[in-house]
Write a structure and sequence with these properties.
By secondary structure, the protein is an alpha+beta fold. The protein has 7 helices and 30 strands. The longest helix has 27 residues.
């Protein structure tokens, strides 16, 4: 009896020890929290698992995570959710009828108070060009353990005509020129090394007039399938992927083009048949960028996807619902534009606006201090001989201005279709000017609208434009590359306390590639360059831009070596 009792006790002890060891092992690798460990899978936006072994067979895996899984605390702690991406993610300040909104601006609506959203996305950027921005440095300096990074690039990485933004989706993510490499090397690894959790988003589709989402509208191009490259990368390196491409393509296809467009920005409004009700002018719909209703919808889809991602799921509100069309509202105080695209074919210009070369037109407009069409007011925008252009306002008149509240100037220009890439370059010589005058500008300008046959001052013409030009911002300040956006004058960088003088020379150029515009001025032995992404040149004239030479207020400039070249068709936004 004694021997049997001892044997039973030993067996019992062994069973207890075995149970203890199993419990200890389970506690070391809980199923709920942190980033996925080497033997775990992560979930995509539909809840399906994505294992690292699902990645491309010809690309070695970096492993699903550089950080071991950690047990989630029982009490939810504060976290920061960073977003990086392009114009479909970022914030805007448009004056459109339905202004542009990125989905990153609306994600907060679906999260609890423990999550703070930091939207660092910037319009027009790709995973490559974003690296040069201060917002990328902010990300590098700020992201920390316990944070999350949502990565939403793709639209601009596709721009094969722009080497500053293009990344190739047809190549494996181990290739330094590829889309996947840029995402992994500069965003995924950055987050992991900081102890944060990266989450990849495929890009939303562009609205397709033919309801076909198998091609470029869904980011399938001659340089690869950009959405699939993100899916493949997520599988290869063990990062969750929220498939916004598939979700928006399915939704848009179900709705049809006309209904899908209700998610998108609309540049202009118009009067309905009753002559008083203002309705969206759907001829000006932006098929790439969302309005606030669309941004709320995509943010909702994103939040639903985040519910299936370990860790961040705890920050999504339990009950969330998609927006309704009650959220589709025009901007406050919208005024229907009275602007009409000028009929240049029938333009009978006065002699001081006469040109010789085809495609060039002279005019003056805005706060001109009198009728610019009258030769007595001293405005010039004429081609004096083949390829030689004289533009400005003679020194004895000193008319026109560039101020915070109004613009008035002479303009010798070309009309350019909205979908064209182009370059314009010139050499300039100041022929005459009035000493000590401020509010004087001259150089090259690219703008939204143009006006001919004006017979009186119109100080209300303060449309969007950029310049490769110089501005006497004060009587002791010469600035370079000034611009106006949404009515606000940005006077550019101060380069000198000495104002321009007769005999001064300069060169200037404006280049447009897709949604990117680069302006350059060489003056006084220095070169000044600025680049603008997704600048709004279409708020008033949706079909054209206007580019040319300008001057005003007692300054006349002679422009030579004028070269204008259409370099192709824009790949769009």
């Amino acid at each position: 009896m004694t021997i049997k009792r001892k044997g039973f006790v030993c067996i019992a002890i062994l069973l207890v020890l075995s149970l203890f060891m199993l419990t200890a092992c389970k506690d070391k690798n809980p199923s709920g929290g942190g980033q996925a460990g080497p033997s775990e899978s992560v979930q995509d936006s539909t809840g399906g698992s994505q294992s690292p072994s699902d990645g491309p067979s010809d690309s070695p895996s970096d492993g699903p995570s550089e950080n071991p899984p950690v047990e989630e605390p029982t009490e939810l702690t504060d976290t920061t959710i960073y977003l990086v991406g392009d114009s479909t993610v970022c914030a805007f300040s448009d004056k459109y009828f339905y202004p542009r909104y990125g989905y990153g601006t609306q994600l907060f609506r679906y999260l609890n108070e423990k999550a703070t959203v930091k939207n660092l996305a910037l319009s027009g950027r790709s995973s490559k060009s974003f690296l040069a921005e201060s917002n990328y440095q902010t990300l590098k300096n700020s992201i920390k353990a316990g944070d999350y990074l949502i990565i939403g690039f793709g639209h601009n990485d596709e721009k094969s005509d722009d080497p500053t933004r293009f990344t190739d989706a047809s190549k494996p993510y181990t290739d330094p020129t590829s889309f996947g490499y840029h995402l992994n090397e500069y965003y995924v690894k950055l987050a992991k090394e900081a102890g944060a959790t990266p989450i990849l988003c495929t890009p939303i589709v562009r609205a397709a007039t033919d309801n076909d989402y198998s091609g470029s509208e869904a980011h399938v191009t001659s340089t690869g399938n950009y959405a699939q490259a993100i899916r493949d990368l997520g599988a290869a390196v063990g990062v969750a992927v929220i498939d916004l491409t598939a979700a928006t393509a399915q939704r848009y296809a179900e709705l049809g083009f006309d209904e899908a467009c209700k998610y998108h920005a609309v540049t202009a409004g118009k009067y309905a048949d009753d002559g008083t009700t203002v309705v969206p002018n759907m001829d000006t719909v932006d098929k790439t960028h969302l309005n606030i209703y669309g941004a709320k919808y995509v943010a909702y889809v994103l939040a639903e996807g985040l519910k299936n991602v370990n860790g961040i799921s705890r920050y999504v509100l339990d009950e969330i619902t998609p927006p309704t069309q009650a959220d589709l509202v025009p901007i406050d105080g919208y005024v229907v534009p009275t602007y009409t695209t000028p009929n240049l074919e029938n333009y009978n210009a006065p002699s001081h606006f006469a040109t010789i070369s085809d495609g060039w037109y002279g005019t003056a407009f805005g706060d001109t201090g009198g009728s610019p069409s009258s030769a007595g007011n001293g405005y010039l925008a004429q081609e004096t001989s083949k390829g030689v252009f004289k533009v400005g306002n003679i020194s004895s008149k000193n008319k026109g201005k560039f101020t915070d509240s109004s613009d008035g100037f002479a303009f010798l220009f070309r009309q350019v279709e909205a979908d064209k890439n182009f370059t314009l370059s010139v050499s300039g010589t100041v022929l005459e000017c009035t000493a000590g005058k401020n509010q004087v500008g001259f150089g090259l300008m690219l703008r939204d609208d143009v006006y001919i046959n004006m017979t009186a001052t119109d100080a209300s013409i303060i449309s969007n434009y950029v310049t490769a030009g110089l501005l006497t911002a004060t009587t002791s300040s010469l600035n370079v590359n000034f611009l106006r956006e949404n009515g606000v004058l940005n006077k550019g960088e101060k380069i000198s306390s000495d104002l321009h003088a007769a005999g001064d020379t300069f060169t200037a150029s404006i280049e447009r590639v897709g949604q990117t515009v680069t302006v350059t001025v060489a003056y006084g032995g220095q070169t000044y360059t600025d680049t603008y992404y997704d600048f709004d040149f279409f708020a008033k004239d949706n079909g054209y831009m206007y580019v040319g030479m300008f001057a005003n207020r007692g300054t006349v400039v002679e422009f030579t070596d004028v070269v204008f070249t259409v370099t192709g068709t824009s790949q769009g936004a």
